[in-house]
Please model this.
Amino acid sequence: MSLTTTSFGDERPLRPGFLVGPLGWLNQRLTKALASDRELFVRLFELDPHRMHVLGLGVAYHDGEPSPEIVKSLLAEPPKSALGPIIGQCPKGLGRALQALPQQAVLNPESYRALVSLLDDRSTANYLHHCRSITEPMIVGLAALPESLRRPAIFKLFGQTEGMDSFVRGLQFLSARAGVSFDYLIEHLGSFDQPEQVIAKITDLAESLPLPDRLPDPRIGPFVRLDNIAEIRSLAKAWHNCLVNHLYEVNEGTKLIYLSIEDGLPAVALVVRVHRLGWALAQIKGPRNIDLDRIEASRKSDKFAAAGIPRLADVAAVKDLLWRRQFLRGVRG
Model:
């Protein structure tokens, strides 16, 4: 992402540096305000994490670029007084929630808006009021929960289960794979009082799935599967990446490697076997393990999704619950 520069008359242009790096997308939204009022730079220099999130929340709700007056208000006035005119009635516990957010950087604008909605909902608000820390993945996962899943048994899975930000997507994939109505599944899960019951139901459904009886297609969109070990070794050497670390699993049939050289944008996709759920896309990388542009990576991931292969992140929560259930069975004998 390109950095926005700010100019003060004939002086050299300024651009966000390390000290305001945590402000992320806010740097661009504050460009005009900073250009017209240099005092704001001083205030930003003195910014603490709590006030950073007050600023992020206010700007996330504000249409367009905020005026210097609005920015000063968000930086100096009591949070409720500053945020009230922008978001309306501040939900109960908003100040404490902002204090519980991560200190490293601002959230995405969508996450700030989702946080306010969650605090306006009685069930999710009650849960958040008792959280000592609130992470962005937690906000994303809670916001995605249908009303019937906004229950204590589901909330208890947050913080102890990986990938809960994609929990609902994992359930959608599981229900489709099992041929069960998604609405029926979430209503059933929402009727449980204990997280162990939720885990048991998901595990039972997953273990009832038939074993995948074949490998994914040799060609998926622009990607071609590499089955020849010599070809994989040659590619790993040419690209200076870690493909050879997966050769054992490739031979075992639990990992697959796909290559695409479409549009001069070469990429390698790693597909892994996930329990009885089937196959999932673990990652897509360029030469030297370089991450692809976010939009390009999403476009390539969609090719696999169309072939029935979800992102591994989307089934991570279900996968983790299956592992935990198996682990507990082993411990209990």
